[in-house]
Amino acid sequence: MTDTDSMAGKLRVGDLYWRKVGSNGWTLGKLCAFNEDTKVADFGLVDEDSGDMLRQPPETIDVSEHPLYPANPLFSTCADMTSLHHLHEAALVKNLQDRSALSNQRPYTFMANVLIAINPLRYLEEVDKELFIGKQLDKCPPHPYHVAESAYRQLCTLRPVMQNQSIIISGESGSGKTETSKIILDFLTVRAVAPRSDSFDDHSEPEVTTATPPARPSLTRGTPSSRVLSSFSTRDVSSMLKEPNTVTLGERLMETIPILESFGNAKTHRNHNSSRFGKYMRLQFSSRHYELTGASIDTYLLEKSRLVHPPNGERNFHIFYELLRSRRSDLLTLLHLEKDDPEALIASFHYLNRSSCTTSDLLDDGANFAKLTDALLMVGIDHLQQTDLFRLVGGLLHLGNVAFDEEETTEGLSAVLAPSATASLEAAADLLGVPVAELSSAMLNKRITRSKGGRKNSIYYLKKDARQAAYSRDTIAKSIYEIVFSWLMRQCACALEYNETLRDVLPYIGVLDIFGFEDFEPLNRNSFEQLLINYANETLQSIFNTCIFQAEQELYLSEHIHVPNNVDLTFPFALPGQPLPPPAVTDAPLSDRLNSTSELITYVDNQECLNLIASRQGGVFATIDTVSRLPGPSDRKLNERLHTLFKRNSCFPLPHPKEAHEMFCIVHYAGTVKYHIESFIDKNNNIISAQFEELIEMSRSRILSSQPAASATPSSQIKGGSVSQMFSVQMKGLASELEGTRCNFIRCIKPNAAMAVGVFDRNSVVDQLRCSGTVQACSVLRVGLPTRILYAEVVDIYAPLVGDEVYGLFKLNERLFTQAICAALRFPPDAYRLGDTRLFFRTGKIDLLDQLLNVTSVDPAMPKLLGRYVVKRRWISAVTKVLVYKHWERIYFDCKFRRSAIALQCAWRQHRARRELASLQRQYQIALKLQSWFRKLQIMKAFAGRPEEKLSLLHGLLAKPALPKGQKWLLTWLGPLQRAMYVQKLCRKACVAFLVKRGFLWLYETVRKKRAQLLLQTQIRVLLAKRRLQELVRKRRARDHWKRAILGARVSSLFLRQYRRVHLERLEKAHDTLTAENAALAASVAALSQELAAAQQQRDALEAAAVEQKRLLEERAARIQALEAQVPKAKESLLSRVFRFFTCNSAPYDLEDDDDELAERTVSECSSVDDPAKPTPPSSTTSTASTPSPATTLAAKHARALSTLVKPARRQHEGVWKISRFVF
User: Fold this and answer.
1) Residue 531: what are its φ and ψ, rounded to 5°?
2) CA dist., res. 691 & res. 696, Å (int)
3) Please, what is the Cα angle at 734 between 731 and 736, to 5 degrees?
4) Position 875 pLDDT exceeds 80
5) How far is CA 253 from CA 228, 292, 436, 515, 609, in A?
6) Region Actin-binding: which residues (predicted)?
7) Rounded to the nearest 10 degrees, how much is the dihedral formed by the CA atoms of 421, 427, 429, 430?
8) Is 303 helix (H, G, I), strand (E, B) or coil?
9) CB 320 within 8 A of CB 308
10) Residue 1080 class from Cβ within 10 Å (0-12 exposed, 13-18 middle, 19+ buried)?
11) pLDDT bracket for residue 52 (50, 70, 90)
12) Is 516 within any annotated ligand binding site?
């Protein structure tokens, strides 16, 4: 706030003043006493509601340290804040607070041509559009309909060049931007079909209310949710669905709003329905009847990071909660969402439960889903496409539940799917229409493609760790959601029938709903998103400065404010016998009158800040891109680079040294903002790998497959470009388009952070006014001429009071009449300016306007003063003409006489100058001769008696190629010395000739001898060289022979080593194979040992049975006794033979030939043991008639098995032995 805002005029005791408390607070009080010498005042606080002073002693303040700002009259508000008597921050806030009070609530207020909208946080009674359509806007109250009607009329105005319109709506989250844009769109869709009135007389005069009218009841519309479709639809949705052919373009346009809100809005700390993207909607009209023919929607900076990382205490996008609370069991079953409890279902998804906020008291997700499906049908998205759309939404939820574990591999820690994530992965792949293996590989593996020379590309896969896999999962999810959002925008564009080919031909009105300035310090940190948002606001602020302040300058230009036109009735020249009067033009200093109109209004240009952020020659965005392309980029390197490059920039102040390593600061138009550098590099990266793109391309979903191949994002025009680069291009394109239109501004203000109805938080409102540039605009307007009134109004007030006779003297010249009134009221000429149609007052001269307007009767002398003013003006005009003629006549004769006098004086001065020049030339020649003679005497005197120095001087003179004229006398003076030098020169020449002759002869003789010596030495050297050459040739041949021999030996040795290595590898492989086979045979032997043990047990059992049979076979006792001697012998033979089989001891016989015989003898012996009554046969062959016992059969079986196993074992051992002998 400038000093001109404070104490506008002299402080007066008893008046109300505002005193600033803290950074944003204001206190109203009355000035009880004031000492002009000490600047000390007694300030008593006043109750703003009643106007009474509070019962507490006044405060004593120093006005020089705590300035006071005059307050406007209480209990009165202004619809246009430029009409306030005192214009400063406290006056603005007080006027907005009074107008937004619940009783007789008027939330809209103008500030010049800027509409300030205070969010009422409730639904008010809808204003009739007919009050604005075709009516005089100066009689209409402030409302978004007012702005929309003004823009439509300007669009319809006939001009040589088409003037498109734009309405820029800005404000912080929760300030009502979306609702205001709905009101604008609703009005324009109705206005485009309404009959157009030709009476577009728009004189935007301030609406001043001196008393509060009776309160008008406000009607609420159901739940205070901003997502109420029926409040802006002109027809019932069900009827529109039944009759799709009768749906108008305006109705389809309004039905796109629920779609944008479901997929682009979310619940935040500041707003339950916050738009997480910016949008610019163009309403295209016909060029003849100005009917709505099409519309388009451009989106900016969708907050994709909210999908995977919703802030704590906030929700994800509305569509997820609406889908899960839709109670559509068939759809939920199709999407693998089978739980009956929606809350439990929501809590089971990672993307929804990580923010600890899943509900909103002001939103009905189930009802909003039904409205969403109806809206999708309205824009041409049928049920089949809706199913495909919701499959992708459900697939993103399942994809978020894919978790990863880490395991140690040869490549280090590698990510693997968690056991619980298999079902989620399969569900996500099914809903997204991609193969499970490809989706898993895209998250777990990184593909690297390399090509060398003419070879084909080589593809390598690297394992990712768990963090990288989760990052890839989130990247895929964000890319798919962005594709879904862009597909919806394309579908809406098709439904809105925007004619792109006639874009530059058909007129349009653009409605921009953009995010407001953000500074989360000190409660939270400002990051990369805040930098982009604030850059967008800087761009819009630049447009605001151009449009608002330039419009004010154009008004001054059209009114010719810079022309000195309010003059005192004084003569411009001195009358005879009178002193020179003061200048006639006293409205402003001469420098002010001669300056251009642009100097009437000065404002702070934020172009330097824009260049700092987005300049192509090294701005912040360009620096981020440069550091991102370096090897090993990091946020720390980026912060150091920024501080190094911009430390001398006035918009880049250095933070505290303790914080300099983690943040940087930028001075914006709304204040200095601290940005924390964390994650700048990652958030700026918009490059999607080819692996992800191929995954999306192979999807079976029609939505993903319909994505244009040129780009993965709706606004990306540069392949692989960064987020900052693309957003900068978008903002520059948007600014270029807005600058080509006539801009209308709406500043939305949130009354309190808690979104409570009827609460007006001054501190919060002041912050928003400063961030929106409103306070700055008021400060700038104060430097100009903010108070103005039409001449017609002055005439309407004073003409009836002075009478038609007096007014007739001015010949219907309203401007002259107003000037006479100001002179009659003795207004200071420097307090006002006269335009062509308006009277402008300077800042702080509102009391003069009150004096001019608040009049019920005039002074009886007023008519005489006005008549005298006219007569005196006419008389002064006539006398001025005569005096001007006399002055010009006198000037002419004076100039003629002066020319003649100048000619005579010139001739006399020429004659006198010639005589003086001749005298001076004679004196000069004499002086030169005397000086030359005197210098010669001095030189001769100096060289007297010094022959050596004379000789040196003579040498120096002779060495010069040419002597000046003044030095030639020296050669005459030094003539004798010169002749002596000539004789010496001849003598020296003769001596030199004699010596040269003698020297030549000596040199000739020396050279002849030298040549003879050289010839002899050459012959000797040639002979020695030939011998040396022959010796070197022999040595070279010997050396080459030995090199070849050594090389052959090395090759042979290398071949043998290689052959031995290969042979050893083969032997090692054979040895390993045999070792494995031996191990298998050893296992077989162990098994047979177990079987033999079982056979021995059976044998023991048979022996016990034999002993038991002894009692039964007493009659054979004699035979048994006879054979007792043979039984032990047979047993020992059997055991020895079995032992030989197991130990492979083939000493008694050859196993290869006698295996069958061994088996037969073993069976025979066993048979003889089992039946001792039978005699042992003499041969080894057993009788075929006898029936073998079980023991005999078992023994024979074991014997044959042993013989079968022993033969290959012995062969293998013999082979191993032969191989070992060969190797070693």
Assistant:
1) -65, -45
2) 9
3) 110
4) yes
5) 15, 11, 39, 21, 37
6) 731-753
7) 160
8) coil
9) no
10) exposed
11) confident
12) no
Give residue limits of the domains in the chain: 9-71, 303-506, 526-571+603-677
- Alpha-carbon distance of 711 to 933, in angstroms, equals 98
In our burial notation (b when 16+ CB lie closer than 10 A, e otherwise), range 393-429 reads: bbbbbbbbbbbbeeeeeeeeebbbbeeebeebbbbbb
**Which residue bears the tokens 């006794």?**
1121
Bigger pLDDT: 205 vs 163: 163
**Could you give the CA distance from residue 1069 to residue 310 in angstroms, rounded to a whole number?**
61
Burial class (CB in 10 A: 0-12, 13-18, 19+), 543: buried
C-alpha–C-alpha distance, residues 1024 and 475, integer Å: 85
At residue 779's C-alpha, the angle toward residues 776 and 781, to 5°, is 110
- The answer for residues whose C-beta is within 8 angstroms of residue 670's C-beta and 6 or more apart is 517, 519, 537, 770, 771, 772, 773
22 is in an annotated binding site: no
CATH topology of domain 526-571+603-677: Methane Monooxygenase Hydroxylase; Chain G, domain 1 (1.20.58)
Q: Which residue has the tokens 């330039």?
A: 550
Provide CATH code, domain 9-71: 2.30.30
**Torsions phi, psi for 725 (to 5 deg):** -65, -45
Residue 177 is labelled as binding a ligand? yes
Distance between the two ends of the chain, CA-based, in angstroms? Answer: 104
| Cross-strand bridge partners of residue 168 | 512, 745
Q: Residue 283's closest CA among 350, 184, 203? A: 184
Task: Give which of 850, 851, 843, 848 is closest to 828, Cα–Cα.
Answer: 848
Q: Closest Cα to residue 848, out of 868, 874, 827?
A: 827
Give dist(CA 886, CA 302) in Å, integer: 78
Give every CB contact of residue 410 below 8 A, 6+ residues apart in sequence. none
C-alpha triplet 881, 885, 891: angle, nearest 5°:
140
DSSP code of residue 326: S
The arithmetic mean of pLDDT across residues 1076-1090, rounded, is 90
Q: Is 173 annotated as a binding residue?
A: yes
CA distance 1059 to 1114: 79
The pLDDT of 5-19, averaged and rounded, is 72
Tokens of 874: 């006419």
DSSP state of 220: -
Question: Which amino acid type is present at position 428?
Answer: A
Residue 959: pLDDT above 60?
Answer: yes
Token duo for residue 701: 């979903």
Asked if 527 and 676 count as a contact pair (C-beta separation under 8 A), the reply is: yes
Confirm whether residue 174 is marked as ligand binding.
yes
171 is in an annotated binding site: yes
Strands (DSSP E) along 481-528, which ranges?
508-513
- Name the pTM for this structure: 0.63
Distance of alpha carbon 119 from alpha carbon 121, whole angstroms:
5
Q: How many CB atoms lie within 10 A of CB 908?
A: 9
178 marked among binding-site residues: yes
Close Cβ partners of 1002 (under 8 Å, ≥ 6 residues apart):
none
For all residues of the chain together, what is the average pLDDT? 80
Q: How far from chain centre, in Å, is Cα 356?
A: 28
User: Do 524 and 178 contact (CB within 8 A), yes or no?
Assistant: no
d(CA 747, CA 142): 13
Top pLDDT among 716 and 881 is at 881
Residue type, 547: C
647's CB contacts (< 8 A; 6+ apart) are 654
Structure tokens at 138: 């100066």
Distance CA 206, CA 228 (A): 34
SS3 841: strand
Which of these ranges, 191-200, 415-424, 995-1004, has the smallest mean pLDDT?
A: 191-200
**303-506: what fold?**
Four Helix Bundle (Hemerythrin (Met), subunit A) (1.20.120)
| Token couple for 643 | 């501080």
Element (H, E) at 329: helix 329-334
Give the Cα separation of 1052 and 1044 in Å (integer): 12
